[in-house]
Amino acid sequence: MVDDALAENVRPGGQVIEIGCGPGAVLAELAAVHPDVAFLGLDVEEKMIVHARDHHPGPNVRFELVDLSTDTPDVTGDLAYSIDVLHHIRDLPGFLRGLHAALRRGATWLAVEPNVFHPYIFWSQERMRRAGLGEDHFRPWAVEPLFGAAGFEVRERRYALLFPGWLDRVPPSVAWIEPLLERFRLFGASVAYRLERR
Question: Domains of the chain by range and CATH?
Fold first, then answer.
């Protein structure tokens, strides 16, 4: 998904931002495949940034400790992506303003979040929330109006990942059913957005 969006939206010399880059491996892999594009990983956890800098240095990749709710990085991105980040953010309007400022007009943002309508995901998130582990549900009905208010237009919303992420390869005998069932919100474990910065 990110690779396809990168090919469609980012030209040589462009800027890609990963929001919530964690230990940095995903961003470093993309940077290695696209040496003519600059990559910036952002995270609010200092230990993650230190790890990413130590383990994934590269000529076209950097990692910064930035909280978009209060800070704006010194870049103008062509593409941003976030995976399981939004449901952790406490000041979502502030975060969205910060991200809006970090992207050029017309830039694409891919956001993937746990699907609250999927029974297993709902149960799993609820257990973690009740245990005080910093998890909460991603509530599309509450967040989607905030996207618009912050200057993002939802270009696409789909449900994805019928099969769990720990499966490296879905057997071909059942892989064909995944795209068919992902049309229904009860089957996709994630909700995936393609947003455009206005």
Answer: 2-197 (3.40.50.150)
